[in-house]
């Protein structure tokens, strides 16, 4: 309206009528005042209405508060009255209870006396309570009390009644056990628990437990491997025992004990009944013992058996269960194991030698026998008769790694069983006895015997034909077998002797035997070297011609035929040495052989005279000898030095006389004794013609 009036007040687009605007505003203000008065009157009416309602609610609230106070007072009064009534009711109840207990006891005593009177009267007891199967639990309670009373009665006057009570007691006890078994077969755990609680007051409670165990284990543990069924059976029945019996720990212990002392013991005795086959018996004994231990470990892990046991709580001890199941089956085990190992190893050796078509010989050792053998061999060689009967068996070593592996496997099983089955008092003694058998059969009867045969098969040094040396192969196999034995000793023997005083004794015994073998190996290597060097000496002595080093005319500068034959043989020998020996043995043998060959060749060359062509041949021979004796990798520097010196000495046979002094003062020959140089220079064919003796005087 104001906006419209403002528009009407415009005279033109740019002019406004102020009076009209003033009238418009004045009229608008009056209208607003009228509207304000109207709203104020309305607010006053609303305030009056609210005040009236507030007065009404205040009055009503005051009335309610008065009523609430009255109710609180009434409730307090009622509470006091109820407390007084409750106290009086409790007092009355106590008085009634005190008065009722004697009456109840009197009633119970009256009933017991009534039942006792029935037993005192002649003839059978015909009371319904004792003849109704449905009242068996109630009858059990009564007869148990009567049985207790009967024990206090004088025997003379109440003998008949006591016998009747005892008979009925036994009858009800049997009936309870029968009902318990029926409930067990039906799986009625609640009834089983009720009867078990009743039976705890009877002297035949253990019979109830036995009946439960017998029924639970009936037609169980019947398979081929009953050990695998023990833990599931125990777990299944442990749940039932915990739910039924008031003393589940003792019942479970008896349940487990029955399995080990009856079921497993009978099964083990059946398995071990046949002792004719010792191998099978010992294998079964070990299997039974370890299987029993495994079952015990499973029960220990399941918490049904204690590792140490506790007599006060009835916990079973693991070791006692194992011994109970075995029932002394491992008594006498040690003697059987020793006898078995000796028989098995001896039989393995016999089979091996039979396959080789070899009959073992009684070999006598000692210095006299060695001297006798050498004399017979020398005489036989000179007379071309085989008196000494030296036999090399076609290169057969009579050693077998496969045989040794089998023997050690058998021994390992024996030591394993020994550690498992022997008691702590028997263990060390049995282990030592088994070790004695193993040493005797493996190291003495097999390895030591093969070394003796190998020693006898080594040809003597005076043989004209190249000696065939097979002893190096024997040494190689002996080393391998000894290593296998050492590993077995560490892995199988020592664990049986740990923390005992016998351990050092066994180590010393093993060391003595191995030293004996080592001495024979050393003797054989010495004899083999002597045979090789002896043949080289003999062959060079018989086959080397004087014309080899003093040829006539022009010839090719090559090694002599005798040298080539020796070198060919030496190469074959050194091949065997390097193929079969290792470590210190290889170094010692190769060095000793090179030193002795050097000595033989040195002495051999001093038996000849040399012209220039012959000196060249001698130098070629020495090169061949050096190549054969120490031309392989790893050869000793000392051997190289010896042959280098010999090569330098041979140069003295070739150089011009005027250069001898210079050569003798060379690095290689300067350290040698002057007599050695003089002796070699005297081997020159021109020694006298060139008057080299005067030179030697100047050299000295």
Structural notes for this entry:
This protein is an all-alpha fold and 700 residues long. It has 24 helices and no strands. The protein folds into four domains: 18-120; 130-326, no CATH class; 333-517; 544-699, Methane Monooxygenase Hydroxylase, Chain G, domain 1 (Up-down Bundle). The protein has helices at 2-9, 18-120, 128-131, 136-150, 159-186, 189-199, 205-216, 227-244, 248-271, 278-301, 318-326, 333-355, 367-383, 401-421, 424-457, 471-497, 502-543, 561-580, 583-605, 612-630, 637-651, 660-664, 674-681, 692-699.
Low-confidence stretches: none
Can you count the helices? 24
What integer value in Å does the Rg equal?
59 Å
Number of strands: 0
Q: Indicate the mean pLDDT.
A: 83
Count of domain modules? 4
Distance between the termini: 162 Å
SSE run: HHHHHHHHHHHHHHHHHHHHHHHH
Strand proportion: under 5%
> Level of helix content?
over 70%
Structural class: mainly alpha
**Main beta-sheet strand count, sense and barrel state:** none
Task: Give the overall shape.
Answer: elongated
Family: Belongs to the SEC10 family.
Organism: Papilio xuthus
Protein name: Exocyst complex component 5
Domain Exocyst complex component Sec10-like alpha-helical bundle: 138-694
Short recap of the structure:
This protein has four domains: 18-120; 130-326, no CATH class; 333-517; 544-699, Up-down Bundle (Methane Monooxygenase Hydroxylase, Chain G, domain 1), CATH 1.20.58. It has 24 helices and no strands. It has helices at residues 2-9, 18-120, 128-131, 136-150, 159-186, 189-199, 205-216, 227-244, 248-271, 278-301, 318-326, 333-355, 367-383, 401-421, 424-457, 471-497, 502-543, 561-580, 583-605, 612-630, 637-651, 660-664, 674-681, 692-699.
């Amino acid at each position: 309206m104001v906006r419209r009036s403002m528009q009407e007040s415009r005279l033109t687009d740019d002019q406004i009528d102020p009076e009209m605007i003033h009238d418009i505003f004045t009229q608008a203000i009056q209208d607003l005042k009228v509207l304000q008065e109207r709203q104020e009157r309305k607010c006053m009416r609303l305030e009056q209405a609210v005040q009236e309602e507030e007065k009404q609610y205040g009055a009503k609230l005051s009335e309610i508060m008065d009523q609430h106070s009255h109710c609180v007072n009434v409730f307090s009064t009622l509470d006091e009255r109820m407390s007084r009534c409750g106290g009086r009711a409790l007092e009355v109840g106590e008085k009634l209870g005190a008065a009722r207990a004697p009456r109840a006891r009197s009633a119970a005593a009256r009933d017991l006396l009534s039942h006792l009177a029935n037993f005192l009267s002649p003839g059978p007891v015909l009371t319904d309570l004792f003849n109704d199967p449905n009242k068996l639990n109630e009858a059990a309670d009564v007869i148990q009390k009567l049985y207790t009373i009967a024990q206090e009665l004088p025997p003379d006057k109440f003998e008949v009644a006591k016998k009747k009570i005892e008979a009925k007691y036994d009858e009800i006890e049997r009936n309870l056990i029968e009902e318990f078994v029926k409930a067990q077969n039906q799986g009625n755990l609640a009834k089983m628990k009720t009867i078990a609680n009743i039976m705890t007051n009877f002297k035949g409670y253990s019979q109830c437990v036995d009946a439960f165990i017998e029924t639970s284990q009936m037609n169980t543990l019947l398979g081929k491997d009953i050990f695998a069924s023990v833990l599931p059976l125990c777990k299944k029945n442990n749940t039932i025992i915990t739910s039924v019996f008031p003393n589940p720990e003792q019942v479970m212990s008896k349940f487990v004990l029955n399995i080990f002392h009856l079921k497993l013991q009978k099964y083990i005795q059946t398995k071990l009944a046949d002792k004719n086959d010792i191998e099978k018996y010992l294998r079964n004994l070990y299997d039974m013992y370890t299987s029993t231990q495994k079952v015990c470990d499973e029960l220990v892990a399941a918490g049904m058996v204690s590792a140490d046991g506790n007599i006060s709580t009835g916990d079973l001890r693991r070791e006692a269960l194992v011994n109970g199941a075995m029932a002394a089956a491992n008594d006498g085990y040690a003697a059987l194991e020793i006898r078995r190992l000796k028989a098995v190893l001896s039989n393995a050796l016999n089979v091996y030698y039979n396959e080789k078509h070899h009959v073992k010989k009684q070999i006598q050792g000692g210095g006299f026998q060695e001297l006798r053998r050498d004399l017979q061999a020398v005489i036989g060689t000179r007379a071309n008769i085989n008196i000494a009967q030296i036999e090399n068996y076609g290169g057969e070593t009579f050693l077998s790694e496969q045989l040794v592996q089998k023997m050690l496997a058998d021994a390992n099983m024996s030591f394993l069983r020994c550690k498992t089955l022997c008691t702590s008092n028997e263990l060390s003694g049995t282990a030592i006895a088994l070790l004695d058998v193993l040493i005797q059969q493996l190291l003495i009867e097999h390895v030591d015997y093969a070394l003796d045969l190998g020693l006898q098969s080594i040809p003597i040094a005076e043989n004209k034909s190249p000696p065939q040396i097979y002893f190096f192969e024997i040494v190689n196999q002996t080393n391998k077998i000894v290593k296998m034995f050492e590993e077995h000793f560490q892995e199988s023997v020592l664990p049986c002797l740990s923390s005992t005083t016998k351990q050092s004794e066994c180590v010393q015994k093993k060391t003595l035997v191995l030293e004996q073998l080592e001495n024979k190996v050393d003797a054989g290597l010495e004899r083999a070297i002597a045979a090789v060097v002896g043949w080289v000496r003999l062959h060079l002595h018989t086959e080397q011609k004087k014309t080899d080093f003093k040829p006539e005319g022009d010839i090719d500068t090559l090694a002599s035929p005798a040298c080539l034959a020796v070198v060919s043989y030496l190469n074959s020998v050194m091949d065997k040495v390097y193929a079969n020996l290792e470590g210190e043995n290889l170094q010692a043998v190769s060095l000793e052989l090179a030193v002795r060959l050097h000595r033989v060749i040195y002495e051999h060359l001093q038996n000849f005279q040399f012209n220039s062509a012959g000196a060249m041949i001698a130098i070629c021979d020495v090169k061949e000898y050096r190549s054969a004796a120490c031309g392989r990798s790893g050869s000793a520097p000392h051997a190289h030095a010896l042959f280098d010196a010999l090569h330098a000495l041979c140069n003295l046979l070739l150089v011009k006389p005027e250069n001898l002094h210079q050569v003798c003062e060379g690095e290689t020959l300067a350290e040698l004794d002057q007599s050695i140089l003089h002796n070699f220079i005297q081997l020159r064919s021109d020694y006298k013609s060139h008057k080299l003796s005067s030179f030697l005087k100047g050299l000295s």
